[in-house]
Amino acid sequence: MVRRSILFLLIVAVIKIAATTPLQGQPYMRIVSLAPSFTKSIDHLGAWDHLVGRTSFCDTNDSKEVEVVASAVKANIEKIISLKPDVVLASGLTHPKDIELLRKVGIKVEVIYSPKSFQEVCDQFIQMGEWTGKSEKALAIVNECRQTVEETTLENASRPSKKVFFQVGANPIFSVVPNTYMDDFITLLGAKNIAAQLTGGTVTREFVIANNPDYIFIATMGIVGEEEVQTWKKYTSLTATRKGHIHIIDADKACQPIPSYFVETLQEMNRLMWGDGK
Hints:
By secondary structure, this protein is α/β, with parallel strands linked by helices. It contains twelve helices and eleven strands. Strands 6, 7, 8, 9, 10 and 11 form a six-stranded mixed beta sheet that branches. It is globular.
């Protein structure tokens, strides 16, 4: 009986979706977001009213309650179909079978993978602006962010290079690696990532000690970050420890690829390396 109900729902959804899919070039008016960064980008663009579904990890907005349709990795397909979205924004963490099923019933799915650079962060935000009919606002935000990044980069061009360890996970310890937008936090400040030669992010404390970073930045959630700070402080041979250069970075901003969040994180790291936090 349940299987028949699901089948009937899928068939009805195909008919309804075919009738409501927007024309080419028109903004999507009913969007399901399967990643917190997509939801936050939509909010930054002032397009919250376009959102009809989100994950349980996404922020909310007082202007309109949005249905929870997924966890971080598992989507409720029946609920998504019932919302009759124009598009579902999926991430690299979305299960391929969920994406396939949604497409089979006629729902458009846009898969957005984690950007590999600040440039890609900006490109994806501009694309989000096009999808929501907020292109001008997206371009204005991106242009302002690019200008700030350029000014910061030029400001640090003549400064001596520092070695940085950027930790984004504990147990196991996970490092920011090249070909990720988070590596740009380091390189745009004229610093060197001690994990620059690695292809995978898992490292040991011995690896960090051997590479002796001048600065350690930790982007982890809750009490874990404070625990990691205290652990690194025990390694008194580290330059970062001796000079008090171990800092917690706001993971909610550093780990979400949104232009304005990227700039805020970059400026905070810049202050800690070259400003009052030196």
